[in-house]
Amino acid sequence: QKEVEQNSGPLSVPEGAIASLNCTYSDRGSQSFFWYRQYSGKSPELIMFIYSNGDKEDGRFTAQLNKASQYVSLLIRDSQPSDSATYLCAVNGGEKLTFGTGTRLTIIP
Amino acid sequence: KAGVTQTPRYLIKTRGQQVTLSCSPISGHRSVSWYQQTPGQGLQFLFEYFSETQRNKGNFPGRFSGRQFSNSRSEMNVSTLELGDSALYLCASSISRTGSLPGNTIYFGEGSWLTVV
Predict the structure, then answer these.
(1) Is B55 near chain A, with CB under 8 Å?
(2) Closest approach of A58 to chain B, Cα-based (Å)
(3) Element housing B23 (H / E)
(4) Cβ of B86 under 8 Å from any chain A Cβ?
């Protein structure tokens, strides 16, 4: 079992709709969870992080964490074509950050 | 405030050669981590340096090494290059060591694209 799992996609969402990205992790002791966005040919850029159960909102983005079920998700409201990218989930299990392989999101105009 | 700076951005090397990549972290950041990204494997952790000491190392052969200087700048070296080493090498910096604080966030540089022929 991979430490951090994401559906590779591609996930296609109409412009203006909500995009939902999911991530599961295996280490129950994981403390912090991060979402990065990576455009093709570019480096990952931080969207947001979360470390408490529940929801955390930042603009059009909402991160949701459920430690009991070991999953973290990212919701993107009012999706825009500029949101088309690969989204990487990263989990801090102590001394290193482990990344999922990413979900490729395409926003359809 | 300047971001993480990596040099060189692009390079082509021949099998058997060695390469050194450089990274300057964000001012005030003391931790530097290195990652390898390939289409097949995704982002793989190489190592993390903090206060000039390697704090953690990923599952890579000894051909991959690194170091950190007193000004927090870091270099990584790959010796005896193989075709499979072709990848995007990313440096990331953070204020503190990974895992030391709940929200300790790493910020990536633009990466060094290495092609081994």
Answers:
(1) yes
(2) 15
(3) strand B19-24
(4) no
Query: With 90 as the cut, is the pLDDT of residue A8 above it?
Result: no
Three-state DSSP class for residue B93:
strand
DSSP letters, A18-84, are -EEEEEEES-TT--EEEEEEE-TTS--EEEEEE-SSEEEEETTEEEEEETTTTEEEEEESS--GGG-
Distance CA A59, CA B56 (A): 35
A64 or B95, higher pLDDT: A64
Give per-residue pLDDT as tens, B19-74. Answer: 999 999 999 999 999 999 998 888 999 999 999 999 999 999 999 999 999 999 99
Find chain A residues with C-beta within 8 A of B42's C-beta.
88, 99-102
Task: Count Cβ atoms below 10 Å from residue B84 Cβ, excluding itself.
Answer: 10
Chain A residue with CA closest to B99: the answer is: A94
Q: Is 70 exceeded by the pLDDT of residue A1?
A: no
| Contact by Cβ (8 Å): A84, A90 | no
- CA–CA separation, B46 and B54 (whole Å): 11
B117 contacts B12 by C-beta, under 8 angstroms: yes
Q: Note the Cα B110 to chain centre separation in Å.
A: 11
Q: How many CB atoms lie within 10 A of CB B25?
A: 28
pLDDT, residue B23, reads 98
Calculate mean pLDDT across residues A29-40.
Answer: 93
